[in-house]
Amino acid sequence: MKNGTIAEEAGKERGSGRRLRGAVIHMLGRAILTGEHKPGDILAGEVAYAEALGVSRGAYREAIQGLIAKGLVESRPRTGTRVLPRQRWNILDPDVLAWAFAGVPDIRLLRSLFELRSAVEPFAARLAAERRSEDDLTIMRNALEAMDRLTLATDGGLEADRAFHEAILCASQNDALIALSSSIAAGVEWTTRFKQRDRALPRDPLPDHRRVYEAIARGDPDAAAAAMTVLIKLAIDDTWFGMGAMVGV
Question: Domain for residue 169, yes or no?
């Protein structure tokens, strides 16, 4: 654990106890997701860790409870707090995804996210074309306009992209898909941030999004599913392009 760095970051958040507790859980979560703490590792004791972080024991305990809720650790009286195996992690939790992308995410995670998107989003687009409301279309259209105006190189543009994908899942009117909407949208945002971390996107993905919207708007399920499939395939290609930048290819 890089205690000096963590203590400095925690110190920046001292203006609010709530913000401080949030800073602690984010720092511990990033340490686990980036491999600083590995599955099976036992974290330092509460007193030692709280002192190292420069926070109260209460703030540290609350952070651990947050990590327990996300499946990252378990805490037992005699054995302490242990990092759980990867398969126990709630990897679709938006916070967990953010921590994973704090460094360079591993290939397995990237592949898993795109496989999930490939399985879920084309079907969601198909249902959206059959079931969307005018309000759904307005949300998608507004998101596209914001993406065009702000571009995906800005936080605002990325938020609009996230809103677009989330709106499609919500427009499916399928409660199980809607339950995945925030996780899928978070995956979209973080992979897009990642693939332009070291260099600009190799192409403009907005036309691909427009084709999905147009198919949904005209109520064409087959075209909507096909357009979403192409969008995801091109996003995968862009991500491997971004990975090449990370390793100097």
Answer: yes
Q: What tens digit of pLDDT does each residue of 132-172 get?
A: 999 999 999 999 999 999 999 999 999 999 999 999 999 99
Question: Are residues 175 and 208 located together in one domain of the fold?
Answer: yes
The answer for residues whose C-beta is within 8 angstroms of residue 215's C-beta and 6 or more apart is 125, 129, 223, 224, 226, 227
| Amino acid sitting at position 98 | A
- Closest C-alpha to 80, from 40, 52, 53: 40
Residues 80 and 122 in one domain: no
Please tell me what DSSP assigns to residue 44.
P
Is position 13 within any domain? Answer: yes
Same domain, 219 and 174: yes
CATH of the domain at 212: 1.20.120.530
- DSSP secondary structure of 142-158: HHHHHHHHH-TTSHHHH
Provide the sign of the torsion angle of the four alpha carbons 114, 133, 144, 175, taken in this order: negative
pLDDT for residue 246: 46
With b for 16 or more beta-carbon neighbours within 10 A and e for fewer, the 5-23 pattern comes to ebeebbeebeeeeeebbbb
CA 90, CA 70: separation in Å to the nearest integer? 5
d(CA 221, CA 129): 5
Written as six digits, the tokens of 246 are 């990370």
Same domain, 234 and 152: yes
